[in-house]
Amino acid sequence: MVWAVVLFVCVTTALKLNGYQPTAINDRFTISRMPRARTKGVTKPSELKVTSNVLSLSKRNDANSLSSIYVQAMRGKGGVSRVKNGTTTLNAVEGGQVHAVEVTVGGQNFSVVVDTGSSDPWLAINGFECYDLDSTPMPQSYCEFGPTYDSSQSPTYAVVPDQNFNISYADGEYLNGAMGNETFTMAGITVPNQQFGVVSIAAWLGDGVTSGLVGLAYRSLTSAYGGTTPGSDVRNQAMLYNPLFVNMYEQQGVPSIFSMAIDRDESVGGILALGGIPNVKHSPYFVNTPILPAGVNAAKELVYQFYTIDIDGFAFSSNQSTQFNVYNNVNPLKTPLVGNGTDVIVDSGTSLCYVPDNVADGTAAAFNPPATYDSSVDAYFVDCDATVPIFGVGIGKKIFYVNPADLIIDLYGDGSSCVMGIQPNFGGLTILGGTWMKNVLAVFDIGAEQMRFAARQWSSVSD
């Protein structure tokens, strides 16, 4: 894989985010705590009501997620490019999963990537210039956008004067253009005069369907700059503006929460709910835990954001009747959790779970027959018909278990080669990805700065 920047990995042995001091992950990236999401102070937790403001999450199997660029680099393995793939190989699995939703912008309908790690809404415009990652001009088809935005067909479009949109990614992708104001409708919620990036120059690895992106991260990651010349932009001097979801709850009165239910049926994808929770089967009991927003920094610039929480530890055993001690005290009748106090990233764009090495090793040994480690690809492989152990994550004194179906990933769909859904992080960041997220209803309460989870490991969104 070709990278615009070579990542030399020198991983630290643990991640604890103390204050706002950056923690070195390798010689390219650091990670640090971010300021809280809201400028108007923390609010009380939102009431969890079922909302009709929902969107179907369409999984794009022919593209890698933006978060995978940073997850794999900070995992300590190196990195992945977002080059497309036609089969479900190990590289494709490590490339994460892209979820798309439908939006209406200026009366025009688009499919866009939804990304919890970035903030800007942006669309490619008619007549955009396409480049490869070496900045060589290419035909528009190379960037593989879906239908492009036509500002001349919208009576509500207005250019934001003396500003430009400028964003780049660790694998060499970049986007430039104007900043505009436009009417956005998403999940039945309309926001007039929403600021967004109008992309006229793109080095992008698209999927042939999506036309842009809507970010659900904090406003501190927006990418508008003063002036109209991107080459003159000074990093760390971006002009902050309200992303789409922020305007929904600050201007339109939508409760400041969004929630996700990821489905293990790839043809379904999942559901994203704005301002509430979707009408899906789940446990009536929710646990809550503070959001510890973490920012990824490159060359002292904030480039990506993750929603991070603190967990009670991991539960794993070959004995299906094992009782675990969620209180992490002395109890000889129960098995203690492993990794109490671990900071973990909750990321729907990551396919697998990346956990401390001792947790991955212990889980691998609990399969029957045990999973085997392949050092040539730095991954645990497992017999496709192996007996699966129990595996769970303790949060708020409750263990959220993973459905056995999610612990074995069939790479080719024919039972010939399978990897474990839990993989080592090599001393880097701990990630709760799709393997775990398919088993919970995840609520991001931005106003109260907390995440809430309910179990749904035996349910699908269509039940």
TrEMBL record:
<feature type="active site">
    <location>
        <position position="115"/>
    </location>
</feature>
<comment type="similarity">
    <text>Belongs to the peptidase A1 family.</text>
</comment>
<dbReference type="GO" id="GO:0000324">
    <property type="term" value="C:fungal-type vacuole"/>
</dbReference>
<dbReference type="GO" id="GO:0006508">
    <property type="term" value="P:proteolysis"/>
</dbReference>
<protein>
    <recommendedName>
        <fullName>Peptidase A1 domain-containing protein</fullName>
    </recommendedName>
</protein>
<dbReference type="Pfam" id="PF00026">
    <property type="entry name" value="Asp"/>
</dbReference>
<feature type="domain" description="Peptidase A1">
    <location>
        <begin position="99"/>
        <end position="454"/>
    </location>
</feature>
<keyword id="KW-0732">Signal</keyword>
<dbReference type="InterPro" id="IPR001461">
    <property type="entry name" value="Aspartic_peptidase_A1"/>
</dbReference>
<dbReference type="InterPro" id="IPR001969">
    <property type="entry name" value="Aspartic_peptidase_AS"/>
</dbReference>
<dbReference type="GO" id="GO:0004190">
    <property type="term" value="F:aspartic-type endopeptidase activity"/>
</dbReference>
<keyword id="KW-0064">Aspartyl protease</keyword>
<keyword id="KW-0378">Hydrolase</keyword>
<dbReference type="InterPro" id="IPR021109">
    <property type="entry name" value="Peptidase_aspartic_dom_sf"/>
</dbReference>
<feature type="active site">
    <location>
        <position position="347"/>
    </location>
</feature>
<dbReference type="InterPro" id="IPR034164">
    <property type="entry name" value="Pepsin-like_dom"/>
</dbReference>
<keyword id="KW-0645">Protease</keyword>
<dbReference type="InterPro" id="IPR033121">
    <property type="entry name" value="PEPTIDASE_A1"/>
</dbReference>
<feature type="signal peptide">
    <location>
        <begin position="1"/>
        <end position="19"/>
    </location>
</feature>
